[in-house]
């Protein structure tokens, strides 16, 4: 295969096959790959290509009790484990109140597959959040949680999605995609639904009007071909539904889990993935770079390798942090990172509209309370009535 010809075609916006993507991912020079992906990004966002976005959000972990026991996960505890916990609704609402207070627009409900949590639990939680904080977008959960809650409640996937959507869920975060191809998925998450099933459920959600993002966990021992196969599986569904708003790869963190960090993705592999995703996923609007698992410098670099978004100021994050992600940031720093990477920062909504474009540094937000990994009791707030 003539790599340069394929790279030129991809940079010009031509669709490339999975085989061609694998060849580029493996063998194209890193900078050439990044330059081609950046050319695609610039054309896709012509007129706003000087902007890179971020969002202010909070992950809210409602329980760490989980029956699924994924081998890469450092967060979960088996039912009846002494370190298992569940957050009550008052606590969840307090975290939502802090999010609003700090200018956050989105919450990501994230937790284990609790043996007792069916559709009713999420209806109750989302309903209470929306009643109190209608301005918060609930961008949460994924196909795995839907499959689990439907089973607990004895209802169909369609009914589970329709009910939690009616209760307040705005979009799915696409959690649980991990690695979609069967071999690596079975190794790292043997009790999770298959990759095909994960996609089927997301396709059902898209058909019911609930859009989502898509994710990929890199570095648990999967091959390059399996990474590209993961992208192909997403692109095929996206051709039918158009419901994936973004693709977000992130890297496996090695601490406190059963895989024990025996394999990990390198930062170069991560940057190559950002670039090949921009080139291959010609039907997905946004590619998100990350500072949380790969560090701030690599996050900045990702903006030159095809990413148009640098993720979020995560007011709270416990899942990948439990597995060793040590990077921390805040709003002022995130804005600085984007600006010093040569882009104009813009706060975005969940649906990627620009809420505030920070053209002039003199007008930058100055609230230094907006920090990642905030303690839940950090702010003095009026008590929330449940
Ligand atoms: S990744 Fe999610 S489903 Fe898997 S063990 Fe952890 S909490 Fe449970």
UniProtKB/TrEMBL annotation:
(3R)-3-methyl-D-ornithine binds at residues 290, 312. It catalyses: dehypoxanthine futalosine + S-adenosyl-L-methionine = cyclic dehypoxanthinylfutalosinate + 5'-deoxyadenosine + L-methionine + H(+). Binds 1 [4Fe-4S] cluster. The cluster is coordinated with 3 cysteines and an exchangeable S-adenosyl-L-methionine. It holds the Pfam family Radical_SAM. GO terms for molecular function: 4 iron, 4 sulfur cluster binding; 7,8-didemethyl-8-hydroxy-5-deazariboflavin synthase activity; iron ion binding; oxidoreductase activity, acting on X-H and Y-H to form an X-Y bond; transferase activity, transferring alkyl or aryl (other than methyl) groups. NCBIfam families: CofH family radical SAM protein, menaquin_MqnC. Residues 52-283 form the Radical SAM core domain. [4Fe-4S] cluster binds at residues 66, 70, 73. Belongs to the radical SAM superfamily. MqnC family. Its cofactor is [4Fe-4S] cluster. Its EC number is 1.21.98.1. Keywords: 4Fe-4S, Iron, Iron-sulfur, Menaquinone biosynthesis, Metal-binding, Oxidoreductase, S-adenosyl-L-methionine. GO terms for biological process: menaquinone biosynthetic process. This is Cyclic dehypoxanthine futalosine synthase. HAMAP family: MqnC (MF_00992). S-adenosyl-L-methionine binds at residues 72, 178. SUPFAM superfamilies: Radical SAM enzymes. It is an enzyme of class 1 (oxidoreductase). It comes from the Bacteria. It comes from Mangrovactinospora gilvigrisea. Pathway: Quinol/quinone metabolism; menaquinone biosynthesis.
């Amino acid at each position: 295969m003539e790599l340069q010809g394929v790279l030129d075609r991809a940079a010009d916006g031509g669709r490339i096959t999975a085989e061609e993507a694998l060849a580029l991912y493996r063998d194209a020079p890193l900078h050439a790959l990044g330059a081609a992906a950046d050319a695609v990004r610039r054309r896709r966002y012509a007129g706003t290509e000087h902007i890179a976005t971020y969002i202010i959000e909070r992950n809210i972990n409602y329980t760490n009790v989980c029956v699924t026991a994924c081998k890469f996960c450092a967060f979960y505890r088996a039912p009846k484990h002494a370190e298992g916990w569940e957050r009550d609704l008052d606590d969840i609402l307090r975290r939502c109140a802090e999010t609003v207070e700090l200018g956050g627009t989105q919450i990501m409900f994230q937790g284990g597959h609790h043996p007792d949590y069916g559709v009713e639990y999420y209806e109750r939680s989302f309903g209470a959040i929306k009643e109190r904080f209608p301005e918060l977008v609930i961008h949460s959960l994924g196909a795995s949680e839907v499959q689990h809650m439907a089973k607990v409640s004895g209802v169909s996937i369609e009914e589970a999605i329709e009910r939690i959507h009616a209760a307040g869920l705005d979009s799915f975060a696409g959690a649980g995609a991990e690695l979609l191809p069967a071999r690596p998925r079975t190794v790292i998450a043997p009790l999770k639904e298959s990759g095909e099933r994960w996609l089927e459920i997301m396709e059902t959600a898209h058909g019911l009007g609930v859009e989502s993002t898509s994710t990929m966990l890199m570095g648990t021992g999967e091959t390059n071909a399996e990474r590209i196969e993961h992208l192909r599986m997403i692109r095929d569904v996206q051709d039918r539904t158009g419901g994936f708003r973004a693709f977000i790869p992130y890297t496996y963190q090695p601490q406190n889990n059963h895989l024990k960090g025996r394999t990990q993705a390198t930062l170069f592999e991560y940057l190559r993935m950002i670039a090949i995703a921009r080139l291959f996923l010609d039907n997905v609007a946004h590619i998100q770079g990350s500072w949380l698992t790969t560090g701030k410098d690599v996050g900045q670099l990702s903006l030159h390798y095809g990413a148009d978004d640098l993720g979020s100021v995560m007011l709270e994050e416990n899942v990948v942090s439990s597995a060793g992600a040590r990077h921390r940031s805040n709003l002022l720093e995130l804005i600085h990172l984007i600006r010093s990477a040569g882009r104009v920062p813009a706060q975005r909504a969940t649906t990627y509209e620009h809420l505030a474009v920070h053209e002039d540094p003199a007008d930058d937000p100055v609230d230094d309370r907006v920090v990642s990994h905030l303690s839940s009791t950090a702010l003095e707030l009026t008590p929330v009535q449940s």
